[in-house]
C-alpha cells in the first residue's frame, strides 16, 4: 500500500504545526466568459498543500467552470493562476496533467470501450516512456515497463476494492462503480492535486460512505491535496478543511466549514433571496 | 510562374468579361445542382440525425427510374407520377427496414447503413434498367431545351441553356415550398420538434416513424427533381455518383442542418470550382475539378470548424 | 465445457498480459497458422490462391490499417484507397530507381511514403472531428487519385498510364512479375500480413494502443489525462497509412501485376471500410473476418450460378452482387452493429457455459 505514498505525506495538522502551510495553487481575480455570458467573475482563493478544499454553491454557480480553468481546459479572460509559486501561462490540459493535476468528472468520463484495468492503466500514460519501436517488439523493455505499471495499478485496484471487475468493460458497470473506477484512474496519475467534480452525485448512502472513506484515505495516506465539488452538505462539512462558496459566478464566502455554514450570504444563496 | 498564378488569371477575367460571365453562369448552375443534393441531405439529417450517404445515388436512381419507365413505353408524365410513387415506396421501405431497427445506434453505424443502401440502389437500378448511360427525356416532360445568346458589349456573347434557367427556377420554387412546409404546416412543426429532440418529440405524441418516412419521401422528391435537371445536362448513369460526393463539401460549408447553408455552400463550391478549373487548372495540367471542392471546404473548415452558419462550439465536460 | 479458462491460473502479470491468455485460444491460433502455412499450400490450386487467398490477405492487411485509424483511434477515413495507391506508386518508383534492391524490402519501405502523406492529411484532425473529418480524407482520396493520373513521372511516362510490375527474383525464386508462381506470392503475402498483424497486436495492447483508444472513447478526458491529441492522432494516421501503403503495394506487386489509378479509387476505400465495420471496429480478428466476407462472398456469387449450370450474363451477376452485398451490409448492421468480432465473442461466451447455460 505504501508503495506509492510519496514523501509529501503531510496532513493539514502536521503542516499547521510547522508554521504557515505551503500554498499549492492560488487563483487570483479570475474571470471567465463565454460570448456575453459571464461564468466566473473575479474569483480568488487558494488551495493549501495537503488539505481538502471544498467548492460549493447552487447549480450554475460556476463550480465546474472553475475546475476547468484550474486544469487548463478553459482559459480565463482575466486573472492569474499560480501553481506552486509560479504564475502559469496559458496552458494546454495535457500540460496541467503532466504537472500533477488529476481530475474526475461530473458526468462520468471513463473510456467506455476499455476495461477497468485499461482505464486505470490509462492514468499511467504520462509515466510510461517506451517509444513505438519498443512497443512494436513488445518483448523486453516494453513488456517490463507494462508489468511495472501494472503492479501500481493493481495496488490501486486493491485499495478501491474493485478486484472483481478488473477485466469488465466499464460501460457495463453500475454508476457507483464507474465513479470508483474514475477515482482510480485519477489516482493512477499519482497527482499532487486531485480535482473531484461531484464524486458522490447520484449515489446511495452506502456508496457515499465508501467514497468518503476513499477520499479521506487518499488525503491522509498519500498526502494528496484534494479540491472537491459536492452538493451533499453533510459530506462537505465532514470532509473538508476549508470551503469556498460560489454563487452566480462570484465568491460569497470562504473559510472553515462551521464559519461558512453560519454565513448569512451562504444561507441567502441556498434559500434564495432575490438578487 | 508567380505571374501565371497571381496576375494572369485576373487579366484574362478583365480582358474577356463575356467569358468570365459565362464561367460564372456555369458555376452558378453547377452550384444550384450541388445545393439541391445537399438539400436532400439536410432534410434527412435534420429530422433523424442520419447522414444519408445514399442521397447522391437516390438522384441517379430517380432519374434512371424515370427514363427506364419511359423507355419501356410508359408516357412521360405517367412515368413521372410512377417515379414519384417509387420514391414514396423507397422512403417507406427505408424507414421500415433500415432506419427503424437501427434507431439509437451511433452515427457511424447509420452512415454505414446508408452506404449499404447506396450499394443496393446501384445494383438494383442497373439490374432492372441496365447499366448503360441513358438520355434524359427532357422534351417529353415539357422542359425547355435550346439556348439563348446574349450579346455583351462589342463582340461578347454569353449562351444560356434554357434547361439551366429552368433548373434555377425549379430550385428556387422547391426551396420556397420546403420553407413553407416546414414553417406553416402541422407536419412541418412536428418535423422541427423531432429535429430538436427525438425523445421530447416522442413524449408529446409525435410519431417518429411517420416523420422519418415523410422526410425520406421529401428527400426522394428533391432527388427526382435534381435527377431530371442533372440528367438533362449530361447522361443518366451511375457515373454521376462521383459528382454526388461533391455534396459533402457543400454540407461542410453550409452546416449539416441549415437549408440556406446548403444553398450558399452549393453556390460557393460551384463558383469556386469552375473559376478554379478554367483560370488556374491549366497551370497544373487540368482536371482540378475532381478535388478542388474538397480543398475549398477543407480550408474553410480549418478557420471555421463549425461551418459557415454553425454556432461556435463550446466544448464542455 | 471445452472452452473454459477455469483452472488456468496465472501467476505473473506477464502471463496475464499475453496476447492469448487462454490455452484454448492458443491452440486455435496455432491451428490457424498451421492451416495457413502448411495445409493451404499443400492442397490449394492456383485459382484458390490467386483469386481468394492472396487478395483476402492483402485486404485483411488494409483493413487492419484502417482499423487502427477508425476502429482504435476513432477517426473516420474515406481515403484508404488513395493511401494504398501511394504505397503502390512508391513501391513502383523505388523498384525502378533501385532495380537491384530486394523487392520485399522496397514494398515495406514504400509504406513510409504513404505514412508521411497520411500524416499530412491527418493534420486537420486536430480541429476537425467526426463526419467533417471524412471530408478531409475524401480530399486526400480525390487529390491523390488526380496525382496518379496527372504526374507521369509516377508511372515512368508509360503510354498506358498504368504501372506494370517488373520481374524480380529472390533466393532463386521469381517473386514478382507475371511469371511468379502463385504459391511464392502467397507465402510472401502471408508472411507480411501475419507479421504486421502480430506487431500491431503488440502496439495495441501497450501504452500507444491505449492512448489511441482514449482519444476514441473520450478525447477531452484523454487530453486531461496527459495525452497529447495531435501527436497521438498523427501517429495513428501515420501507422494506419503505413499499413495501408504496404497493402496497396502488395496489391499490385503480388496480386494484380499491373494497376491503374482507378484501381485505387473511392470504391476501394469503401470496400475496406465495409470490411472494418462488418468485421468489427476495434478488433484485429474482425479485420480478417470482414475481409473474408466482403472479398469471398462476391467471388462465390460469381461462380455459384455457373457451377449450378445456370447461365447468367456476367453483367447481371455484377449488378446482383452489388445488390446482395448492399443488402447484407444493412442486414448485418441491424443484427449486430459491432460486427463479426462481437458475434465471435458471444459465441465464445456461450461455449464457455455450455452445456449448462443457467
From TrEMBL, chain A:
Keywords: ATP-binding, Nucleotide-binding, Transport. GO terms for molecular function: ATP binding; ATP hydrolysis activity. CDD domains: ABC_Mj1267_LivG_branched. SMART domains: AAA. One of its GO terms (cellular component) is plasma membrane. The keyword Transmembrane helix does not apply. InterPro entries: AAA+_ATPase, ABC_AA/LPS_Transport, ABC_transporter-like_ATP-bd, BCA_ABC_TP_C, P-loop_NTPase. It comes from the Bacteria. It holds the Pfam family ABC_tran. Residues 25-273 form the ABC transporter domain. This is Amino acid/amide ABC transporter ATP-binding protein 1 (HAAT family). It comes from Roseibium marinum. The lineage of its organism: Bacteria, Pseudomonadati, Pseudomonadota, Alphaproteobacteria, Hyphomicrobiales.
TrEMBL record, chain B:
The lineage of its organism: Bacteria, Pseudomonadati, Pseudomonadota, Alphaproteobacteria, Hyphomicrobiales. It is a multi-pass membrane protein. Pfam families: BPD_transp_2. The keyword Endoplasmic reticulum does not apply. This is Amino acid/amide ABC transporter membrane protein 1 (HAAT family). Belongs to the binding-protein-dependent transport system permease family. LivHM subfamily. It comes from Roseibium marinum. GO terms for cellular component: plasma membrane. Keywords: Amino-acid transport, Cell membrane, Membrane, Transmembrane, Transmembrane helix, Transport. The chain crosses the membrane at residues 20-43, 50-70, 76-94, 106-129, 159-182, 211-230, 250-271, 278-303. One of its GO terms (biological process) is amino acid transport. CDD domains: TM_PBP1_LivH_like (cd06582). GO terms for molecular function: transmembrane transporter activity. The keyword DNA repair does not apply. It is found in: Cell membrane. Its main location: membrane.
Automatic annotation (TrEMBL), chain C:
It comes from the Bacteria. Pfam families: BPD_transp_2. It is found in: Cell membrane. The chain crosses the membrane at residues 27-44, 50-69, 76-92, 104-123, 130-151, 183-204, 234-256, 268-288, 295-314, 320-341. It is a multi-pass membrane protein. Keywords: Cell membrane, Membrane, Transmembrane, Transmembrane helix. One of its GO terms (cellular component) is plasma membrane. Signal peptide: none annotated. InterPro entries: ABC_transp_permease, LivM-like. CDD domains: TM_PBP1_LivM_like (cd06581). GO terms for molecular function: branched-chain amino acid transmembrane transporter activity. This is Amino acid/amide ABC transporter membrane protein 2 (HAAT family). It comes from Roseibium marinum.
Amino acid at each position: 500500500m505504501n508503495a506509492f505514498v510519496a514523501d509529501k505525506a503531510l496532513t493539514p495538522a502536521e503542516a499547521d504545526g510547522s508554521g504557515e502551510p505551503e500554498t499549492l495553487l492560488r487563483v487570483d481575480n479570475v474571470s471567465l466568459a463565454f460570448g456575453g455570458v459571464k461564468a466566473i467573475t473575479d474569483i480568488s482563493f487558494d488551495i493549501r498543500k495537503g488539505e481538502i478544499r471544498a467548492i460549493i454553491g447552487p447549480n450554475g454557480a460556476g463550480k465546474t467552470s472553475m475546475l476547468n480553468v484550474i486544469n487548463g481546459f478553459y482559459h480565463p479572460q482575466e486573472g492569474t493562476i499560480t501553481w506552486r509559486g509560479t504564475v502559469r501561462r496559458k496552458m494546454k490540459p495535457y500540460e496541467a496533467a503532466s504537472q500533477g493535476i488529476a481530475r474526475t468528472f461530473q458526468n462520468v468520463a471513463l473510456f467506455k470501450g476499455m476495461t477497468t484495468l485499461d482505464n486505470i492503466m490509462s492514468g499511467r500514460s504520462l509515466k510510461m516512456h517506451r517509444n513505438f519501436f519498443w512497443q512494436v517488439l513488445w518483448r523486453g523493455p516494453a513488456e517490463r515497463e507494462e508489468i511495472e505499471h501494472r503492479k501500481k495499478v493493481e495496488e490501486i485496484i486493491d485499495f478501491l476494492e474493485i478486484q472483481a471487475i478488473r477485466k469488465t468493460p466499464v460501460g457495463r458497470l453500475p454508476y457507483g462503480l464507474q465513479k470508483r473506477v474514475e477515482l482510480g484512474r485519477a489516482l493512477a496519475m499519482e497527482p499532487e492535486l486531485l480535482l473531484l467534480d461531484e464524486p458522490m452525485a447520484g449515489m446511495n448512502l452506502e456508496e457515499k460512505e465508501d467514497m468518503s472513506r476513499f477520499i479521506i484515505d487518499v488525503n491522509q495516506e498519500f498526502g494528496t491535496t484534494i479540491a472537491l465539488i459536492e452538493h451533499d452538505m453533510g459530506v462537505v462539512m465532514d470532509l473538508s478543511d476549508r470551503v469556498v462558496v460560489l454563487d452566480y459566478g462570484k465568491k460569497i464566502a470562504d473559510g472553515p466549514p462551521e464559519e461558512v455554514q453560519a454565513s448569512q450570504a451562504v444561507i441567502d444563496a441556498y434559500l434564495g433571496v432575490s438578487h | 510562374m508567380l505571374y501565371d498564378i497571381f496576375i494572369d488569371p485576373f487579366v484574362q477575367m478583365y480582358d474577356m468579361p463575356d467569358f468570365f460571365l459565362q464561367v460564372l453562369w456555369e458555376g452558378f448552375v453547377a452550384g444550384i445542382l450541388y445545393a439541391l443534393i445537399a438539400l436532400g441531405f439536410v432534410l434527412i439529417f435534420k429530422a433523424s440525425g442520419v447522414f444519408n450517404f445514399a442521397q447522391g445515388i437516390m438522384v441517379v436512381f430517380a432519374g434512371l427510374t424515370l427514363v427506364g419507365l419511359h423507355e419501356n413505353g410508359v408516357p412521360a408524365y405517367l412515368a413521372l407520377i410512377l417515379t414519384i410513387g417509387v420514391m414514396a415506396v423507397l422512403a417507406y421501405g427505408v424507414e421500415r427496414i433500415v432506419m427503424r431497427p437501427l434507431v439509437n445506434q451511433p452515427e457511424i453505424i447509420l452512415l454505414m447503413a446508408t452506404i449499404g443502401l447506396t450499394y443496393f440502389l446501384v445494383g438494383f437500378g442497373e439490374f432492372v434498367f441496365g447499366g448503360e448511360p441513358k438520355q434524359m427525356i427532357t422534351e417529353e416532360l415539357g422542359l425547355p431545351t435550346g439556348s439563348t445568346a446574349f450579346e455583351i458589349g462589342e463582340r461578347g456573347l454569353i449562351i444560356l441553356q434554357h434547361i439551366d434557367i429552368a433548373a434555377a427556377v425549379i430550385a428556387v420554387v422547391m426551396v420556397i415550398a420546403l420553407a413553407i412546409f416546414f414553417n406553416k404546416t402541422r407536419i412541418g412543426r412536428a418535423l422541427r420538434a423531432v429535429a430538436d429532440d427525438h425523445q421530447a418529440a416522442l413524449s408529446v405524441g409525435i410519431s417518429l416513424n411517420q416523420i422519418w418516412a415523410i422526410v425520406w419521401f421529401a428527400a426522394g422528391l428533391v432527388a427526382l427533381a435534381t435527377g431530371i435537371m442533372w440528367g438533362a445536362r449530361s447522361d443518366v448513369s451511375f457515373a454521376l455518383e462521383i459528382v454526388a460526393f461533391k455534396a459533402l463539401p457543400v454540407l461542410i460549408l453550409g452546416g449539416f442542418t441549415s437549408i440556406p447553408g446548403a444553398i450558399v455552400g452549393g453556390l460557393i463550391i460551384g463558383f469556386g470550382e469552375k473559376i478554379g478549373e478554367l483560370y488556374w487548372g491549366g497551370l497544373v495540367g487540368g482536371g482540378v475539378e475532381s478535388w478542388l471542392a474538397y480543398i475549398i471546404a477543407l480550408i474553410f473548415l480549418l478557420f471555421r470548424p463549425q461551418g459557415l452558419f454553425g454556432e461556435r462550439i463550446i466544448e464542455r465536460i | 465445457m471445452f472452452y473454459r479458462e477455469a483452472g488456468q491460473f496465472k501467476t505473473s502479470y506477464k502471463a496475464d498480459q499475453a496476447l492469448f491468455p487462454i490455452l484454448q485460444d492458443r491452440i486455435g491460433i496455432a491451428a490457424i497458422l498451421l492451416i495457413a502455412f502448411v495445409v493451404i499450400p499443400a492442397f490449394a490450386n492456383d485459382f484458390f490462391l490467386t483469386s481468394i487467398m492472396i487478395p483476402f490477405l492483402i485486404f485483411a492487411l488494409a483493413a487492419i490499417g484502417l482499423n487502427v485509424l477508425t476502429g482504435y483511434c476513432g477517426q473516420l477515413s474515406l481515403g484508404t484507397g488513395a493511401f494504398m495507391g501511394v504505397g503502390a506508386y512508391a513501391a513502383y518508383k523505388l523498384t525502378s530507381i533501385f532495380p537491384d534492391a530486394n523487392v520485399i524490402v522496397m514494398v515495406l519501405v514504400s509504406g513510409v511514403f504513404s505514412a508521411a502523406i497520411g500524416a499530412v492529411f491527418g493534420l486537420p484532425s486536430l480541429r476537425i472531428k467526426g463526419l467533417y473529418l471524412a471530408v478531409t480524407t475524401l480530399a486526400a482520396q480525390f487529390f491523390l487519385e488526380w496525382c496518379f493520373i496527372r504526374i507521369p513521372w509516377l508511372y515512368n511516362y508509360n503510354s498506358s498510364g498504368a504501372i506494370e510490375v517488373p520481374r524480380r527474383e529472390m533466393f532463386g525464386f521469381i517473386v514478382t512479375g507475371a511469371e511468379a508462381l502463385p504459391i511464392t506470392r502467397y507465402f510472401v503475402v502471408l508472411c507480411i500480413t501475419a507479421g504486421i498483424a502480430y506487431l500491431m497486436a503488440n502496439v495495441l495492447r501497450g501504452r500507444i494502443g491505449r492512448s489511441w483508444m482514449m482519444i476514441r472513447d473520450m478525447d477531452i478526458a484523454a487530453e486531461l489525462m496527459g495525452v497529447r491529441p495531435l501527436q497521438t492522432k498523427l501517429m495513428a494516421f501515420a501507422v494506419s497509412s503505413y499499413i495501408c501503403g504496404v497493402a496497396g503495394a502488395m496489391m499490385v506487386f503480388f496480386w494484380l501485376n499491373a494497376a491503374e489509378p482507378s484501381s485505387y479509387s473511392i470504391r476501394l476505400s469503401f470496400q475496406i471500410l465495409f470490411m472494418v465495420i462488418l468485421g468489427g471496429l476495434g478488433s484485429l480478428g474482425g479485420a480478417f473476418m470482414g475481409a473474408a466476407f466482403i472479398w469471398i462472398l462476391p467471388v462465390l456469387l460469381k461462380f455459384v450460378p455457373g457451377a449450378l449450370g445456370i447461365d447468367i450474363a456476367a453483367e447481371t451477376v455484377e449488378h446482383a452482387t452489388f445488390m446482395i452485398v448492399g443488402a447484407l451490409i444493412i442486414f448485418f448492421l441491424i443484427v449486430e452493429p459491432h460486427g463479426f468480432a462481437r458475434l465471435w465473442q458471444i459465441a465464445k461466451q456461450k461455449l464457455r457455459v455450455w452445456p449448462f447455460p443457467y
